[in-house]
Amino acid sequence: MEEMRSMFSHPAVLFLWIQSSSGWMHPKCQIYDSSEDLEHFPTWICSHIPHHAERYTAACQDVTAIEEDLLGLPPNINTLCISMTHGENRSMSLGFFSQFQDLEYLYIDGCFTQILPSGNSHLLNLQHMYLIDKWGTGSGCCDCHIGPHTFIDLVKLCDLTIQGYRLTAMSPDVFHGIPLLQSLIIIEPCVDDLSEILCRIMTIKSLIELKIVAPEIQSINQSNCSILITNESMKPVFNNLAFSDFSFGEITHIEEDALAWLQNLTMLTGVFSQEVLLDLPLSGIKQIQDFSCSGINVIDIESICNVVFLLSIKKIFVNNFNTSSLSMSSVELCTGLEYMYLSGLGSVHPSPHLKWNFISSLKNLNQLDIDFLRDKNPEICSFQKQPITWLTKLTLLINIQILFAKQFICLVKLQYLDLTQNLISNIEDFAFLGLTNLESLDITSNNITQINANTFYGLHSLTWLDLRNNPLIHNIEAMSFTHLMSLRQVFLGQVHNPLTEPVIKLNLTLIFGGILSQLTHLYISSAMRPMQLTIGILGQTVG
Ligand SMILES: *[C@@H]1O[C@H](CO)[C@@H](O)[C@H](O)[C@H]1NC(C)=O
Ligand SMILES: *[C@@H]1O[C@H](CO)[C@@H](O)[C@H](O)[C@H]1NC(C)=O
Ligand SMILES: *[C@@H]1O[C@H](CO)[C@@H](O)[C@H](O)[C@H]1NC(C)=O
Ligand SMILES: *[C@@H]1O[C@H](CO)[C@@H](O)[C@H](O)[C@H]1NC(C)=O
Ligand SMILES: *[C@@H]1O[C@H](CO)[C@@H](O)[C@H](O)[C@H]1NC(C)=O
Ligand SMILES: *[C@@H]1O[C@H](CO)[C@@H](O)[C@H](O)[C@H]1NC(C)=O
Ligand SMILES: *[C@@H]1O[C@H](CO)[C@@H](O)[C@H](O)[C@H]1NC(C)=O
Ligand SMILES: *[C@@H]1O[C@H](CO)[C@@H](O)[C@H](O)[C@H]1NC(C)=O
């Protein structure tokens, strides 16, 4: 009943409703109001588009010819998503869409031989446009001719995404004259020369956000666009650029001052050798906020920290670094870092014990994430001379097997600890002692079989505890959770019992004591086996 009412509230939908009840529906498009229950619609085509309360959407698939296949769509749609049949050889005219006066979002997945401008028929309300060739043609890239000033009539366009279209098939003036463009995303433009991108976009003065993902670019060279070959060339070309995110492939060469036009980068992603990495500060870039750096071969931490220092990097993601080079002194120049992710993924060398006292040099680090390394018995606090008062979040995926007593005792300000997917099978008593500020503890997907009265001792602030996917929790000692005064949510996951006993018996009062009444979530599963949960003196059997 509710659903019917919402459908009848929109005159155009009412029209379609009547049509569909007499057996007629649009052959290629689903039309819906986003206030409806969308469960029965194939919304995947439009799924990346933010849903707006009153958005009136048409999602069309298997489209071969836009003009014919979209015939009969209501003129007042706001969002149009089109998925083209691939392998077709057709051109598209933006003029076609001017019949939809309220169109704000246009998303097209497909490849055309050319895209023609809308001419005089303006698309007055179009704000967001996506041209995506997800599948690519034979060459893996869409060769679509787009002439000069093609988008000049899109007077409200503020956000444009182009993916999988070969940029060199477009005129050098293709983006000229779009008056309000603020956000431009270019993904896989199939060029290896940054100039090809830069020379096409640098006249877009209104740009605030620029994202480029160009895995084929290997050299960062001086651009030879005419606008840059002046004495102004050392100045940035964009006046309002607040967000810039560049992702390249394996960088083999960086020319001096090649990025001087940019100065600040929000995010840079690339694969570097140690030598080329050290050229990055000479590229003319003054500052990078977030830097994701993978090594062709292992990179020494000193080299990375040198770049971190020179470019005032705040967040770093490092893959394939030399784990032996990690030490208190080698990270000294990394002291400005707020976030550090270290991963051994791709490394062929077995990692030695990490020298965990490196943390004491990183006095601004809030969050540390170490993945895909092996240190089964990490001595995080053993060699720290003073408490670590800056770290609040720690994630370790390093094949830990045992948590020993006082393992984390120096991490006095830690609020969040993630130990998911290690091999922890044994937690010694008092392992978490000292973590008085810890609010969230995630030990899912380990090999824990037993919880003792002092396993979680000292976690006064813990509100959230997740133990799911530990295959064999069958032994929870009395009073194991009674001292967790702040606990609100507990996920014990699947509990087991010795096979000799047919019914799993848990006396919740015995293990939680007085804190049971303050829990908002308690998740326990017995995997179809009978389980008897006791609360206080009342027993209850659940299936
Ligand atoms: C598309 O057109 C081009 C040039 O006219 C031709 O070479 C190509 O084979 C056509 N492709 C298809 C799938 O029809
Ligand atoms: C960049 O410069 C290097 C060295 O001068 C040259 O070998 C390379 O071809 C250039 N790359 C591009 C894309 O122009
Ligand atoms: C820039 O250099 C490339 C390759 O070196 C060349 O193909 C292109 O024509 C040059 N562009 C201009 C505007 O000089
Ligand atoms: C750049 O400036 C120098 C000296 O300031 C001048 O000699 C030169 O002609 C200028 N070049 C251009 C392209 O304007
Ligand atoms: C780059 O960032 C620095 C520090 O945040 C700022 O002072 C400078 O004005 C920025 N430069 C540009 C071109 O945005
Ligand atoms: C890794 O770092 C250590 C210590 O700085 C150094 O002795 C070793 O040569 C480095 N290994 C590689 C492969 O660079
Ligand atoms: C889990 O622990 C059991 C014994 O406690 C051991 O036999 C098994 O190998 C462990 N599994 C893993 C993946 O370490
Ligand atoms: C469960 O434990 C509580 C607290 O120790 C105890 O009072 C109660 O008798 C136990 N209930 C059962 C059925 O064993």
UniProtKB/TrEMBL annotation:
SMART domains annotated for this entry? Answer: LRR_SD22, LRR_TYP
User: What do the Gene Ontology cellular component annotations say?
Assistant: plasma membrane
Q: Which UniProt keywords apply?
A: Leucine-rich repeat, Repeat, Signal
ATP-binding in keyword set: no
Tell me the leader sequence span: 1-23
Going by the entry's taxonomy, the superkingdom of the source organism is recorded as Eukaryota
Q: What species does this protein belong to? A: Oncorhynchus mykiss (Rainbow trout)
> What name is this protein filed under?
Uncharacterized protein
